[in-house]
Here is the input.
Amino acid sequence: MLTFLVKHSLVGMFICALLGFLFPSASTFVFPALPVVLFCLMLLTLLGMPIRRLTKRLVNQSVWLYGLVHSVLFMCIFAFVCWLVGASNELTLAILGVGATGSLFATPAIVRALGFDNLEAMAMTIVTTLMLPIVLYFPIQWLHVAQGQLDFVAYGLRLLVFIVGPILISILLHRFLPSEWLQRTLVKISPYTILLVFAFPFGLVGAYRQLWQEDELTALLYLLIAALLVAVFFLVTLMLYRKQGYDVALTAAITAGNRNVLLTYSIAGALLGPAFLPLAGAMQLPTYLLPVITKRIYLSHIKYKLVDKCK
Here is the structure.
């Protein structure tokens, strides 16, 4: 059964988003546990990465340039569009919060399932995650849609728990535990991490279902916005990186399209306003449909190349 889930994980994640929408009570029940699931997934993902090779990728200038594209570029684009269409402060903050959000820590697993360089995806994920608290600070301070100010102590503690914590624990475990034993253990437990990934779309979509029950028209608008956001993330990044090769471009594009909205919410909470969580829930459907579409695009590309060579 586990082998079947791993093999069909891309489709499975999208199905979990649909199931969370169909069973909102179960989705709401799972949601409080997601921060713990997030921490475990981040730690297990980092433990499975070769630290030295990953460190070399992290000091590469191109990865940090990608981080600026991933967050700053898209935030500027969305801020201008929101101003142009006269979007409310609540919706603007939610959209900018999504723009600031780093990539999912499940992204390397998704990229690996697509057959691309998961180490590069991991480096991109870490960089965008490290940039998140800095970039997120500006829209929260600019758009006051919730009572109170940013609590830097609480903000710092959340950063330590959800970002610094997994990175530090991973470094310490790699440093003090025998590498062979650690790798054997990770091989045994790594297939089960897909179950952790399934929890995100299932648990997050409940907030969107609640909005659907209250106002279907607004919910449809949020779903349209979510689909457009994911499409813009993917297509713009794909165009920017297309000259670096198809594999690199698709890796960057899928990393840009997968957004760790739970981490953003865990760090900033209610300061992101009332529109963020429903929008984050709506994003689960297009986000987890994206890898399935990407796989189809890549297979079509490979087929086209083979036909072209035969000619």
The chain has a mean pLDDT of 83. The chain has 17 helices and no strands. The domain at 33-194+209-309 is CATH 1.20.1530.20 (Na+/H+ antiporter like fold). Residues 276-310 form the longest helix (35 residues).
